[in-house]
Amino acid sequence: MRRLGACLALLWLAGCASQPDAVIERDGCRVLPARASLTDVRMHALTLKQDAKGCRAVGRAPTQDIAAMQQRALVVMATAHCGAMATPGEIQQANTQGVASYGFTLLLAAKPDAVCHAPGTGDRAMPVVSIDEASRRSNPPRYPPTMTHAGIEGRVILTLLVEPDGAAAAALVQTSSGQAAFDQSATEAARKWRFHRDAASKHEGLAVVRVPVRFAMD
């Protein structure tokens, strides 16, 4: 009866296997690439730790929007790239010495026979994954009025996770402009962009591309 109760309690996460080593097989941390390659530079902290139920990702960010984008990117990578099961926790606000921050948890569980390949990145990905210029022109980053009035310019480098159909599944800040308004404007616009992918690239599944976004007062 105790085993049945435990099985039912875990059913929402990954189903209940019959073998006694089922819990040990919930190795979700292996489905993610190196943490630094998929971490928004604006995150205060992001840790991955394997426990009895799976891989527990714990993040802390300065804003709710950044926390949500980071959590979303990890979910996309784990589920779209190797069929892992992801259970996002609620994003909660906390105050430390009067400074607000936002934390989240994410539980990842992968089947023992899951095969996960690192998505294409860097120079190898660029010839086969290119931005649709029409979509970028239709959805340009908005120049924040406060930056316009102050005469401030900036440059953001984004990390985008691109689906086989060319949609941007998630956007993270790889290199910040140093201005939160620029970073937010760039990520909001990038999530609406589309990308062109050739047959070989689509077959690989999820792709990672780096896109610079410049804010200049021409």
From TrEMBL:
InterPro entries linked to this entry: TonB-dependent_transducer, TonB/TolA_C, TonB_C
Subcellular localization: Cell inner membrane
Family annotation (SUPFAM superfamilies): TolA/TonB C-terminal domain (SSF74653)
Signal peptide: 1-22
One Pfam entry name: TonB_C
Main localization (coarse): membrane
Record has Nucleotidyltransferase as a keyword: no
Residue ranges occupied by any TonB C-terminal domain in the UniProt entry: 128-218
Membrane topology: Single-pass membrane protein
UniProtKB keywords: Cell inner membrane, Cell membrane, Membrane, Protein transport, Signal, Transmembrane, Transmembrane helix, Transport
The family this protein is said to belong to: Belongs to the TonB family.
Protein name from the UniProt record: Energy transducer TonB
Organism in which the protein naturally occurs: Luteimonas fraxinea
